[in-house]
Design a protein that fits this description.
There is one protein chain. The chain is mainly alpha-helical. It has 6 helices and no strands. The longest helix is centred in the last third of the chain and has 42 residues.
């Protein structure tokens, strides 16, 4: 419906990009599940190093090894579904795309956990050393803020544009 002007080579390129996004999304989801199982097995066998408060920070970092790639894979699948839906290959938005804004907001919230864990670990490891701590915490905070801002902006844009695409499809 909302094509790139009838150029079949561009449409074929978009179909290939959607296929690659979908396949890579599923590969990343499966890989993150494997990493999650291996991380859990490693941690349950050896335990977290350090004190209890350090263990909570380590748990946040280890959880990020599973959650961040998982959410990235889901986001890739949502992007592929969005492209297919916007270009008229799908009549109705698939379930992940329908709830894509909520999934992206959840990713913005949950994706911060490993970075916050990293900040906490660096704070505990660099006690008394203000310069390395300031650089590390500043960089991690910048990454958290940019990730959250990007994901919230994408969620809001997706929430606004899906009804427009649905309305345009209804007119044609």
């Amino acid at each position: 419906m909302i094509g790139l002007g009838g150029d079949e080579s561009r449409n074929a390129l978009m179909r290939q990009a959607c296929c690659v996004l979908s396949v890579m999304g599923w590969v990343v989801i499966v890989a993150s599940a494997v990493i999650g199982v291996l991380t859990y097995d490693s941690v349950s066998y050896r335990g977290f190093p350090g004190e209890l408060k350090e263990s909570a920070a380590w748990a946040m970092v280890y959880a990020g090894r599973f959650v961040s790639p998982l959410m990235m894979g889901i986001a890739a699948i949502i992007a592929a579904q969005f492209i297919r839906y916007a270009f008229g290959e799908l009549d109705d938005p698939p379930i992940l795309l329908k709830y894509g804004d909520k999934i992206l907001l959840l990713d913005a919230l949950v994706g911060c956990v490993p970075s916050i864990g990293s900040i906490l670990l660096n704070t505990m490891m660099h006690r008394g050393e203000s310069y390395p701590l300031l650089i590390s915490a500043g960089w991690s905070s910048l990454l958290i803020i940019s990730r959250v801002a990007l994901l919230v902006a994408l969620a809001v844009a997706l929430r606004k544009i899906l009804p427009v695409i649905r309305e345009v499809k209804g007119l044609v």
